[in-house]
Amino acid sequence: MSTAGKRILMAKTGLDGHWRGPTVVAKALRDAGFEVIMIGMARPEEVMQASIDEDVDLVGLNIGGHVDVAVRAIGMVRESRPEVPIFVGGVVPPHAKRKLEGLGVEVYPPGSQLPDIVAAAVRLTGAA
Amino acid sequence: MAVSQQSAQDTDQLLERARAGDRGALARLISVLERGGDAAACVERGLSSRGAAGYTVGITGAPGAGKSTLVNTLLGEALTDAGRVALLAVDPTSPLSRGALLGDRVRMHSHAASSQVFIRSMASRGQLGGLAVATRSARRLLEACGWPLILIETVGVGQVELDVASTTDTVVVVLNPGWGDEVQANKAGLMEVADIFVINKADKAGLQATRRDLESALASLPMERRPAIVETVATEGRGAADLWAAIASHREAITLSGELASRRQQQLRAELRGLIDARLEAELDQLFASGGADTQLEAVGGGALDMAAAGDALLRELCRRASAAIAG
Amino acid sequence: MNSNNGNGRVWNTASGLHLKNFYAPDDVPESHRKHVAVPPGESPFHRGAYPTGYRTKPWRIFQLSGFGKPEDENERIRFLLEQGETGFIMEHDRNTGDHCYNVDHPDVVARREDVGLTGAVMQSVRDIDICMKDLPLATSYGHAGGAVVQHAPFALAGYWTVAKQRGVDLARLPGTGQSDFFLTYLGCVTKQQIPTRDGLRFNADIMEFCDKHLPRWVPVSIAGYNGADTGLNAYQELGALFANAVEYLEEIKRRNTMPLENAARACGGVNFRASMDLFEEASKMRAARLMWQQLLERRYAITNPKVANLRIHCVTAGSRMTYQQPLNNIVRGTVMALAAALGGVQSLGVSGYDEALSIPSEHAHQMSVRIQQILQEETNIQAVTDPLGGSYYVETLTAELVERAWEFFDEIMEQGGFLASLDSGWLHERAAENQSEDFRQQESGEQVIIGVTDHKDDVSPFDVDGFMGVDDAYDVALERLHEVRRTRYEKGASQALGALESVCRDGENIMPAMMDALAAEVTLGEIGDVYRSVFGDWATPIQT
Ligand code: B12
Ligand SMILES: Nc1nc2c(ncn2[C@@H]2O[C@H](COP(=O)(O)OP(=O)(O)OP(=O)(O)O)[C@@H](O)[C@H]2O)c(=O)[nH]1
Ligand SMILES: [Mg+2]
Q: ipTM exceeding 0.90?
C-alpha cells in the first residue's frame, strides 16, 4: 500500500483564522502523497458533510478554539462515518488533550514535528 | 483477472443505495471509480441503464481566476432552477509527490452543509487534460443517481482544456481583466471550447481592454455561434444571475438546434475511447509488470527479434489478455 | 540529536543575515557611522526616542488581557493593574468582535463554547461599560480593543462613549486601539471582513476624527508583530510596516483633510515583535527608528523631531513559546523582553508561559508583569540609554537591517503597495515560505528548540494545564443581547443605524455616526450587517 489516492480532510473547527498550522501540515501531507481536502473554517455539520461526500480516509481537525466545538464535530463524524479515524492539532491544552484522547482521537499539539504527523497519517489511513 | 463475486455484489449494492439517495454510497462509488480497475469497471456496468439524463456545465480557467468563488454564487442561482446541484471540483495532482491540495471547497461555504448540493473534490491524478480520468464516470454516476445538474470545475493551464468540452454540455471559460495577451495567444483554443466567456473580477482594472480583446478575437465567428460574454464579480455575487441566464439560454439553443444531441454523441465517443484507453493501459502495465514481455524484450535485446515483430506479438498477447479479462 | 556544534556550521541571524566571528570598526558601514555619533533623542533617533530614556520614562507594562463576560475581563484587568501593570488592554471576543457578529449569528452559535475564550463579549455600549468599570481612564493608558480593522470603529466609539458618559474630556483622553491590517488580512484571516480599501478608509477616518477630537489618542497602531509572528523575518517586518505607513499617509495626503505632519505623528506609534535572536531584535528596534526618520524626511519632507521619533510598543514572540516544558517560557519571555528593552522600546507586553496552551492564567499574567518589573528594578538596565550604541556588531546589524528592510519595502511597492501585496496573497507567500523553512531547519537540526527538538525530558513537578476560562459567556451574552433589544429606545437605535448606513455608502467620515450609533445602543452585529451589505467581503487570497 502507499499514500497514493488516500484522502484526508483538513478543517478548522474554530472561527479563528490562524492558518499557519493547518497549511504547513496540509503541505507536508501533500508532499507525502496524500490528497488533502481543505475546507477552511467549518461548522461541525459541515465537517460531517464533507467527510461523507469526500469519502475521506482520515479526518484532520485544526482546533483553534474551545475543545467542545471539536468534540461536537467529532461526534457528528463518528455518527455518520464511524470507521474513519480522526486526528487533531492546534491549541489543545493538556486537559483538552486528555478529553480527546479519551475519545480515541490522536492529538498533535504545538511543537509536533511534521514527520511524526505524516507518519501518523500513514498509519491511520492504512497506507503503511 | 476476474472480478470477484464479492466486490461485484458490493458495488451493486452501493449503486442501489446511491440511486436511492444515500450520499455516503455515492461518495464511495466515486472513490471506486477514481481507483479504477475491475471494481470501477463493475460500477460502469451498473450504469448502463442510464437514468434521467442530467445537464453538465463545465467551468474552466487559469488557476485563481475565481472559478470556485463563481461556482459558489452560481449554485445559488442554479438551485432555484434545478433544485439539486452536484459539483465535481478538479485540482491538479502534484507530479512530484502524487499528492494534492484540493482547496475549492474553501470558497463554497454558502452551500457546505446543504442536502441539495453535493460537492466532490477530485485530484487530476496525473491526467494531462486537467480532468481526472474518473470525472467522466463520476458524471455518469451522478446522472444515474438523479442529479439533474452537474457542474465541473477544472483548471485550464495555458491553453484551455479540450477535455472539458468533450465532457460537458455547456463550457464556461473564466478570464480576468488584464488578460488581453492570454486571450490573443490562445485565441484558437478558446474559441473552440468556450460557449460562454466570463470576465470575472470585473472590479479590477483592465476590464474594458480585456473585453475588447475578447470581442475582436471572436469577431470572425458567425453571429449565432458567438459566445456570450458575461462580466462578474464573484466575491460580491455580481453577475451570477446573468451568467446563469446565459447558461440557460445556451442550453435552450443547443437543445432546440439539435446540437446537444450531437454533442452527447461526441461525448459518448470520447468517453468510450477514454474508457478503453484506460483499460488497455492498465492491461499493458500489468503485462510488463508481470514479466509477460520479458521473452520479447530479451529477444529484441539479443538481436533475435525485430521491434515490429515483438510489438505484434505483444499486441496479440495484450488482446488475448484483455478478452480473457472480459470473459472472466 | 543535532549536529550543529560541528565545524561546518554557518552562523546567521534568525532572518538569515550572515554573521562574522567578531566585529571591528571597519565593519560599520561608512554611511552609518555618522548616526552613531548622534546622541539619543536627536534625529535620526536610532539611538533612542528620548535622551534620558528609561530614567524619566520607564517602559509601559502593557499586557493583552481578557476573556469571558465583560465583568470577568474587568476583574482580570484590575488584577493586572494591582500587580503593577501601567496601562491596560481590553480584548474583545474574536468570534463576535473580529467578525462583527452578535452571538446569535449562526456561525457563532455553531461554536458557542468558543465565545469568550479569547476576549470578553461586547455587543453594545452596555457591555463595554461593564468592562470599563472603575478603570482609571484619565490617568492610565487604555487600549480599547479593536485590533481588527473592521471592528475598530465600534470598539473605539464604545470606549469613547463610556468615557464621555463618565465625564472624561475626550480631548485629554490617552490611549489607543490598534486597527491593524497585519492581524486579519495577513495573520488570522477572518471568515468575513470588509475589503482592504474600505479598511483603509476606516483607518483614515479614525485618524481624522482623533485629529479633531482626541489629540492624545493614538488612532492606529501598525502591528509588525502580527506580521512577524505569522512568519515575516526581522527585515521583512520592518519593510512591510513602513509600506503600511505609506499607505495611510498617501490616503491622508489624497484627502487633504488634516496636516500630513499630524497624520505622520498618528502613525508613529507602532508595534513590533521581539523574538529570540537577542541582538538582531534589539537592532531591529534601532533600525525602525532610523527608518521612520528617513521615510518621513525623504518621502514627505517631514523633519519635525516630535513627529520623526518613532515610539514603539513591543510584544514578545508568542510563537517562540512552547507547549512542551512551559516553564522554560519564563526564560524565553525574559530574554525577549531584554531584547526589547535594549532596543529602547516605550511599551512592552510579555507573552505568558502558558502561551501555547491557552490565554494566560492569572499566574502566567503575573509572571509576565514580574519579568518586566525585575528587569526594570533589579538589573539597572534603565540607567543608560541605548546601552548597545556604538557596538561594532550592533551598529553593523542595525545598518544591515535598514538596508535589507528598504529592499523589501521596495519589493512591496513593486507589488503595487502594501494593500495590493495583501490582496494578491504575495505577503502571505513570504510568510509561508519562512514557516516551511523553519520546519525544515528543525528537522535538519539547524534550529534547536529546547524541550521540543532537543532535551525533551521534563521532570517539572508543576502541572501547567492551561487557563480554563468561564463557561457562561455565551449564555449571558445572549441574554444581554435580548435585553438591549428589548429595552433600548428602538426608534433612536434604528435611526442611528440608518444614518450609519448612509455614511458608509456616501463616504463621509464614519466616526461621528458610529459615536451616535453606540450612544443609541446599536449592537455590533447590526453594524456588521451594514458593513456586509455596503462593503461586501474581502476576496481572501489564501485557502486554509
Ligand atoms: C502566531 C500566532 C498568531 C499570529 C497568526 C499566525 C497564523 N497565521 O497562523 C497572529 C499574531 C496574527 C495571531 C493573532 C491572534 N492570536 Co494567535 N497565536 C499565534 C501563536 C503564537 C503561534 C501559532 C502558530 O502559528 N504556530 C506555528 C504553527 C505551525 O503551529 P500550530 O498552529 O500549533 O500547528 C502545529 C500543531 O498544532 C499541529 N497542528 C496544527 N493543526 C493541525 C491539524 C492536524 C489535523 C494535525 C494532525 C496537526 C495540526 O501541527 C503543527 C506543526 O507542529 C499561538 C500560541 C502558540 N505558541 O501556539 C497564538 C494563539 C493561537 N493565538 C491566540 C489568540 C487569542 C490570538 C488573537 C485573538 C490575539 C489578538 N487579539 O490579537 C489573534 C487572533 C485573531 C483571530 N481572529 O483569531 C491564542 C488562542 C487561545 C485559545 N484558542 O485558547 C494563542 C494560543 C495565544 C494565547 N495563548 O493567547 N496569532
Ligand atoms: N477582486 C476579486 N477577487 C475575486 C473575484 N472572484 C474571486 N476572487 C478571488 O480570487 C482568488 C481565487 O479565487 P478562487 O475562486 O479560489 O479561484 P479558482 O479559479 O477556483 O482557483 P483554483 O481552483 O485554485 O484554480 C480568491 O482570492 C478570490 O477571493 C472577483 O470577482 N473579484
Ligand atoms: Mg477553485
A: yes
